[in-house]
Amino acid sequence: xxxxxxxxxxxxxxPFGKYKxxxxxxxxGPYLNWFAREGFPKGELxxxxxxxxxxxxxxxxxxxxxxxxxxxxxxxxx
Length: 78
Hints:
This protein has 3 helices and no strands.
């Protein structure tokens, strides 16, 4: 795993959709799983979403906490 990619998960925001503006690391698992079923976007965003889905699916999201510069936001937060 590339440390720079992990840092992007906790700094880059979702650029579109229902969760626009939410950090990639804070996207809910069902949303990430939907992308896994339907297809991730092309390019770096898709690769980051796939990485986050894999991390979330394996219950490893808390490993990103030391990289965060702002608190973790859970999917049921508004």
